[in-house]
């Protein structure tokens, strides 16, 4: 009966080890998949930003064409803005606005990161200043103690010299 319990216990321990190994393998696979997903999200974001940028450039070209009233890009026959419907022009204008917002958001994020880094540097500098001030104070105390000891020894030896003579 005890032998069967030991065998069962051993089998359970082996199964637990197998489960732990599978769990570790799953974690690794999940990590790889998360990295792949992050990479793909970044790629999609970059592609979307590029599309917005190109649409913004097209909208800007339309605006310049309308402002200058020069012939369009198609064999001098008409203007580029004549080829687009009002909805398409409006869509390009929205893309331009979205692109501007995206650029401004990126700039704000960079500025915030720079500000965070500078704040961390400032805190480190303040901490270092505090440590140096504490060190200076400790050195001042040591100097004062040495001066007191020197004065005591000077007075002691002066008194000893006076009494000896």
UniProtKB/TrEMBL annotation:
<keyword id="KW-0472">Membrane</keyword>
<feature type="transmembrane region" description="Helical">
    <location>
        <begin position="149"/>
        <end position="164"/>
    </location>
</feature>
<feature type="coiled-coil region">
    <location>
        <begin position="115"/>
        <end position="149"/>
    </location>
</feature>
<dbReference type="InterPro" id="IPR024836">
    <property type="entry name" value="JAKMIP"/>
</dbReference>
<keyword id="KW-1133">Transmembrane helix</keyword>
<dbReference type="GO" id="GO:0016301">
    <property type="term" value="F:kinase activity"/>
</dbReference>
<keyword id="KW-0175">Coiled coil</keyword>
<keyword id="KW-0812">Transmembrane</keyword>
<keyword id="KW-0808">Transferase</keyword>
<keyword id="KW-0418">Kinase</keyword>
<feature type="coiled-coil region">
    <location>
        <begin position="2"/>
        <end position="29"/>
    </location>
</feature>
<protein>
    <submittedName>
        <fullName>Janus kinase and microtubule-interacting protein 3</fullName>
    </submittedName>
</protein>
